[in-house]
Specification:
This protein is α+β, with helices and mostly antiparallel strands and 398 residues long. The chain has 13 helices and 15 strands. The longest helix has 24 residues, at 2-25.
């Protein structure tokens, strides 16, 4: 019995020592264990760089009567259940669902204290906002070309050979070839993933300097946050401004926004997490959609170059890099574009069901903030229904 007792004590001691060494080696694990999957409130643990709105706000029209008939519109969810939109929103823990058409807010549903002015985290919608800024930096001549080597802008990365042949286009198309472990493969893999590390670390630059290359740049597409974070760093170096300041000057104050937005930093005055830490109100996020719906114009002024808008929201002969869902959505310059059927829409998408959806065909904008998301793709049916256009789901869902 003594031998068993001593063996157990030894095993316990080794386990405790190993865990202690692990936490010393990788302090970010403490945050991962504490917060696990980020939620709507997690952004508040990080320093924020706030972005001030326009001096004069644009206001969408609010008709006296909303389109409550949308409550009963039948849509599919992620489990291929056919149900009314109202039930879809409840099942998906949707906190905000706003539908705008022809500058009129036709349908609004809120839960858990949300309103159109609630500042909410949007996760990977940040990547699409970054896409806008890259276009602005190119138009300003701050970034010369997407074919420039990354080392032209961040020379300190030259200490790592993984960056030696990397160009900006490789980052922008998520074909960097840099090593990145996602959260797939169970809870243990999620804890030790690069996704968690870059979300919770207080020093992203330190981690970026240690990255390894696992493939040739420009070849294989892999969805990963690291490419967007590096691209955000490039924008800051190229413009010689914080990302929040550049975002405020070149976009946020020029499109009639009403409320401040914010970008999360890894530490005070640190690097901006341009992959997943952008906070915004729904009413102002819709104005980004409106800007792109109007080919980059606001009040007769060309805010974002029209050719850049078209490059990002249309494939223009490029080969799709992925095919998601029955609508076969692919990523293009950090936006998501469905390819199947009568298409033309585009969206900025974030984890847990965040979305900015724009349909030029019907002049529709949909903003969604959620804690889980209902899955599938009800947006096309909503937009076509409001426009009085026919729509049928693919036979594989019926």
């Amino acid at each position: 019995m003594k031998i068993i007792k001593y063996s157990l004590l030894t095993l316990l001691g080794v386990t405790v020592l190993g865990l202690a060494m692990l936490l010393i080696w990788w302090p970010v694990l403490l945050k991962v264990l504490r917060y696990r999957t980020p939620d709507a409130e997690t952004y508040k643990i990080f320093p924020q760089a706030y972005v001030q709105p326009s001096d004069s706000a644009f206001h969408f029209i609010r008709p006296a009567k909303q389109r409550d008939d949308l409550d009963t519109l039948q849509v599919f969810d992620g489990q291929q259940h056919y149900l009314p939109l109202k039930d879809y929103l409840k099942a998906g823990q949707v906190n905000l669902f706003m539908v705008i058409r022809n500058d009129s807010i036709l349908y609004e549903k809120y839960d858990k204290g949300y309103s159109d002015s609630t500042l909410a985290t949007t996760f990977s919608i940040a990547k699409s906002m970054l896409s806008v800024l890259v276009g602005q930096a190119l138009a300003d001549g701050r970034i010369k070309s997407l074919d420039d080597p990354i080392l032209n802008y961040i020379p300190e990365l030259s200490a790592n050979s993984a960056y030696s042949t990397l160009i900006l286009r490789d980052l922008f198309t998520m074909k960097s070839g840099l090593a990145f472990r996602d959260t797939n493969g169970g809870i243990i893999n999620a804890f030790f993933s690069d996704e968690a590390k870059y979300y919770y670390t207080d020093d992203m630059k330190r981690e970026l300097l240690k990255v390894k290359r696992v493939g040739y740049p420009g070849q294989a597409w892999q969805y990963k946050s690291i490419d967007a974070i590096l691209l955000g760093w490039v924008v800051e170096k190229a413009t010689k401004k914080s990302l929040a300041q550049y975002f405020q000057e070149r976009l946020w104050q020029r499109i009639g926004t009403q409320y401040p937005a914010s970008w999360g930093l890894d530490h005070v005055k640190g690097l901006t997490n341009t992959a997943s830490r952008f906070q915004v109100t729904a009413i102002d996020l819709a104005k980004v959609g409106r800007l792109y719906l109007n080919d980059g114009q606001y009040n007769g002024q060309q805010v974002v170059p029209q050719d850049w808008v078209l490059q990002t929201i249309k494939m223009q002969g490029r080969t799709p890099v992925t095919s998601k869902g029955w609508q076969k959505t692919t990523q293009n310059y950090l936006w998501w574009l469905p390819q199947e059927g009568v298409n033309g829409e585009y969206a900025a998408e974030g984890m847990l069901g965040q979305r900015l959806y724009v349909d030029p065909l019907t002049k529709t904008i949909i903003v969604v903030f959620a804690d889980k998301g209902g899955g599938d793709y009800p947006y096309r049916k909503v937009s076509r229904y409001l426009a009085g256009m026919p729509f049928s789901y693919p036979k594989i869902l019926n």
